[in-house]
Amino acid sequence: MLTRVKSAVANFMGGIMAGSSNGDHLGGSDLPLRFPYMRPEFLGLSPDEIECSADHIARPILILKETKSLPWSTGYAEVINAGKSTLNEDQACCEVVVVKRKPGVSNTPSKTPTSKRRSSLPNGEGLGLKENSESEGLAFHYWALFDGHAGSGAAVVAARLLQHHITEQLRDVLDILRNSAQSPPTCLGEEHPNCTPSSHRTLTRAASLRGAAGAPGSPNTPPARFFTEKKVQHESLVIGAIENAFREMDTQIEREKAIYNISGGCTALVVIFLLGKLYVGNAGDSRAIIIRGGEIIPMSTEFTPESERQRLQFLAYMQPHLLGNEFTHLEFPRRVQRKEIGKRMLYRDFTMNGWAYKTIDDDDLKFPLIYGEGKKARVMATIGVTRGLGDHELKVHDSNIYIKPFLSCCPEVKVYPLTQYEHGADDVLVLGTDGLWDVLSNEEVAEAVTSFLANCDPDDQHRYTMAAQDLVMKARGVLKDRGWRISNDRLGSGDDISVYIIPLFYGNQHQ
């Protein structure tokens, strides 16, 4: 154990996260790649350009060649890391996807037939499917960022396939989503899916006694106290579809690792525009913010060892065998030393937000489940994110302790009712991998984007890509004698950086 702990501490002190090397060919795997490494398809790069993009010294910023490459004139820019890994482990995807009903299947309680008309999709522009549209399919806009670690394999696979899992999940509830006038049925195929409170009243024991006030037939029957069904909103079905799609994607990666070389894992940040609403699903430490009229609206939460400390500690408390008898679920301000046995030291467990003192014993000498602070916090001294896809074979160094049980593939999904607001040309949704947010705050990003757009022609469709390029440049900085530096001579980001800037006023045109 001592060797493993020393190695873990060395990794931690070096700020190394699982993923500090390429990882796509670790272990000399003879399995074929699931998909070849590439940059986002919408960039339209040639093999030579992809090779040039991997220059860790010059770190060129890549932007869209054509503004029409993405719907809504979305802006995009990216840059590779400063030598942290051989390849750019960020991946991105953007599409307009049509969800079509399964052949011969109808899951709607409505008896109204659906028209067979089709809608054209000229790259997403001019798409105007409305909530009560009778077109055969239902379209959604899709933007996604994936930040890989321990190789780019999982990120590449997720960028190619996650949208298909989302499509399949939405297909199961397609007709229900299109019928906004009726609440989702509790059970598909029921003649009367929505029961009235009076027809399904649950009586208390007292109320059921003969002669009791409120018994059936009593002239003073009180209103029902309990109901047998919850009212489920349509947007909850979309949230559930996204959550299930993430799980299916994670399961597919695990299954296919037996036949393909799918390296590492990845965080995932996706945005879906469907029926007038933006759904932002995040699993990891990428971030999304809306900038509207100068106001900043956070649309995601970073999932890190510190932010998910109590979930991880509770899991370890309930299933201590996952710790391999080498880690403790308790947190201390620093490593406990043997000479401190019998003394009282600050600690906290999954029940606590605050701190208290406990008497140190032998078990407390084990390595903490969560060790470190801020960006250097690690789960089992190995990985710095707690949600994402992949990482099924990730173990603590030189041990058989798997870390995957502590890593969740479930995203947090936040909803923004886009069409309920009128947006100007400078109102945008900014998506970025952690390479951006490690060095720039929400306020700095909002100020940079707002200032840049204010100096652009509102009718210039290049403005959002140029704003994304400017933002990536501000986070990367310039190369000086002491490394990459940004404003005020602060250390710039040495990580991969990928940024979308999505103008929201286009969404108002799709009502």
Q: Give the full name of the CATH homologous superfamily of the largest domain.
A: PPM-type phosphatase domain
Main beta sheet, described? 6 strands, antiparallel
| Number of helices, where a helix is a run of at least 4 consecutive DSSP H or I residues | 11
The CATH architecture term of the largest domain is: 4-Layer Sandwich
Class from helix and strand fractions: alpha+beta
* Mean pLDDT score: 86
Instruction: Please list the strands of the largest sheet in the order they lie side by side.
Output: 1-2-20-17-7-8
Helical residue percent band: 10-25%
Please report which band the strand proportion falls in: under 5%, 5-15%, 15-25%, 25-35%, 35-45% or over 45%.
15-25%
CATH class value of the largest domain: Alpha Beta
Radius of gyration: 26 Å
CATH topology-level name of the largest domain: Phosphatase 2c, domain 1
Low-confidence stretches: 5-22, 107-134, 192-203, 205-214
Distance between the termini: 60 Å
Q: How many domain modules?
A: 2
The coarse silhouette is globular
How many strands?
20
If you had to describe this structure to a student in words, what would you say it looks like?
Residues 104-130 are annotated as: Disordered. The protein has helices spanning 2-13, 47-53, 153-171, 174-178, 205-208, 234-256, 309-318, 434-437, 442-454, 463-476, 505-508, and strands spanning 62-63, 75-79, 90-100, 137-149, 265-274, 277-283, 287-292, 295-298, 327-328, 344-347, 356-359, 367-368, 370-371, 378-379, 389-390, 412-416, 428-432, 478-480, 483-485, 497-503. By secondary structure, the protein is of the alpha+beta class. It has 2 domains: 11-181 and 231-303 and 410-508, Phosphatase 2c, domain 1 (4-Layer Sandwich); 307-384, no CATH class. The chain has a 6-stranded antiparallel β-sheet with strand order 1-2-20-17-7-8. Helix 3 packs across helix 6 (234-256) and helix 9 crosses helix 10. The longest helix is centred in the middle third of the chain and has 23 residues, at 234-256. Mean pLDDT is 86; it is low at 5-22, 107-134, 192-203 and 205-214.
